[in-house]
Amino acid sequence: MSFDDLGLSEEVLRAVSDAGYTDPTPIQAKAIPHVLMGRDILGCAQTGTGKTASFTLPMIDILAAGRARARMPRTLILEPTRELAAQVAENFDTYGKYHKLSKALIIGGQSMDDQYKLIDRGVDVLIATPGRLIDLFDRGMLLLSDVKILVIDEADRMLDMGFIPDVERIVGLLPKMRQTLFFSATMPPEIRRLADAFLMNPREITVAPPATPLEKIFQGIVTVTRKERGRGGGGYQKFKREALRALLEKEDVRSALIFCNRKRDVDILYRSLKKHGFDAAALHGDMAQSARTETLGKFKAGEIKLVVCSDVAARGIDIIELSHVFNFDIPTHAEDYVHRIGRTGRAGREGRAFTLVTPEDGKYLHAIERLQGRRIEEIHAGPGKPGPAARAKQDHAEPEKSASPRQSAKKSGQKSDKKSDKKSAGPKRDGKPDDKHDGRRNEQRGQKPGQKPGKQPGKQPGKQPGQQPGRAGKDEGVVGMGDHVPAFMRRPAR
Ligand code: AMP
User: 213 CB under 6 A from ligand 1?
Assistant: First the structure.
């Protein structure tokens, strides 16, 4: 099928052709004709499938007829993060270049006055993160009674981030007679229920994830086994930084994202890389929006080679040239691993993804390998002793019966996304509502705040916290208590 068969206008087709696209992706081919007909859509698709264009292209044509009225946007697109919202806005610029459409990007961290001025003039498209939109609404700066099309993008991510109550409130403010396009990468029961509530007789479209990591991305793990003792800090961190530098020098890196699980570690690693002469920048949810936008812009333009980032800041970032992804910390959810490494190997290009793994990361590695149905190759890249440390632990790890790594994380006593993020997504609306859980999730699930990275007492049967892998003797751990050894039994005997 070609773009010409989808019912799009000449102008949109010209813009698509200018963008260099010849054929629609499966989600575009399946969704666009139905959106143009006014049908609701329930799309099960993730970033990388071309889903953004599947709703922006027909929306541009629908919006071409009619005019915006002051403070009454005609369409509303809800995105979970500022970066995704900004990316959708860019899509409107790219594909709407032969139309005269007005849009406003309503995200935290930017001047509300400027956003209000745009809305006051009248906008065709409002692209927003839920928190800031509600702020503006509550201040009487905007009316939602003229919204004819609603797009809810990345619904499962909204759920993860605790935004669903906000989304429900926003939907309640919209006219009942509207067209709704609802996208989610996964369809857990909560999302299905929401879709049932928001959509009327939707056209259901499911597309396969984009080129699976298995096929197009070379994946490797580097085991970092030596542990820093004393001086009260670092754990494996110093050795992970060494291993990362060795990898960066060994690999032909054109541009790379380097993921840390916590914002604090993003800063530490970024400063360390700079100190060692690498061309690096940092990206996380605590940074001012202007700094985030500037960093992202420079990265996309090829002016910065390495960006050290947290999950939320990097979610959905679409950089075709990205040659590498490095996981400085292994993600505690296997799905996050797939999202992270999916930033590379895009649009038919080769990608390479490497993960630093400590002996205590075995169960996370296990979950990732189980999700993919195969083992990840072990690479030796510098100071970390090569060896099966993480796997050895994994083999001793308590069997995880649950099919979903999210469930297994819950099982192991870690808080669920929903609960922990809801807590943090509470009433605080200080200009960065979309990222307020950034990085905290891993802290809450994987480690207690303030706990040293890599130290997880009670997680490893038979090991003293802080004990070197494979060492026996005086430090030998408690045997026979499974995973639930009381802390006092782990204290060394005097
Ligand atoms: P998305 O899933 O919307 O994040 O899009 C992923 C990437 O695919 C973006 O870089 C788009 O510019 C690109 N893309 C979207 N539609 C097409 C198409 N029909 N052909 C080739 N690339 C596309």
Answer: no
**Which residue, 161, 171, 183, is CA-closest to 315?**
161
Q: Could you give the angle at the alpha carbon of 120 between the alpha carbons of 118 and 123, nearest 5°?
A: 60
User: Tokens at residue 470, please?
Assistant: 């494979």
Ligand 1: residue of 17, 30, 44, 52 to mutate (most ligand atoms within 8 A of CB) is 52
More reliable by pLDDT, 367 or 233? 367
Q: What is the pTM of this model?
A: 0.60
Q: Encoding tokens for residue 254?
A: 């054109």
Q: What is the model's pLDDT at position 67?
A: 86
89: closest CA among 67, 104, 74?
104
In angstroms, the CA 471 to CA 457 distance is 17
Strands 125-128 and 103-106: parallel
> How remote is the CA of residue 91 from the centroid of ligand 1, in Å?
10
pLDDT on residue 398: 37
Reported as a pLDDT band with limits 50, 70 and 90, residue 457 is: very low
Q: Could you tell me if the CB of 25 is within 6 A of ligand 1?
A: yes
Q: Look-up: residue for tokens 């914002």? A: 263
DSSP 225-238: -----STT--TTHH
Of residues 475, 225, 220, the one with CA closest to residue 359: 225
Please report which residue ranges of 204-321 form alpha helices under DSSP H. 213-216, 237-250, 263-275, 289-300, 311-314
- Poorest-pLDDT segment among 34-38, 475-479, 486-490: 475-479
What are 229's two structure tokens? 């003792």
Place of tokens 């960066």: 248
Residue nearest to atom 12 of ligand 1 (CA): 50
Residue carrying the six token digits 């916290």: 465
CB proximity list for 491: less than 8 A, separation 6 or greater: none
The helix or strand, by DSSP H or E, that contains position 43, with its residue range, turns out to be strand 41-44
Q: Which pLDDT score, from 0 to 100, does residue 487 have?
A: 58
pLDDT in tens, 294-339: 888 898 888 999 999 988 766 656 676 789 999 999 999 887 888 8
Q: What's the CA-to-centroid distance between 21 and ligand 1, angstroms?
A: 8
Q: What is the mean pLDDT of residues 123-144?
A: 96
* CB-based contact 130:111 (threshold 8 Å): no
| Token output for 449 | 């705040």
pLDDT in tens, 340-377: 888 887 666 678 999 999 999 999 999 998 888 788 99
Structure-block tokens of residue 385: 């002793």
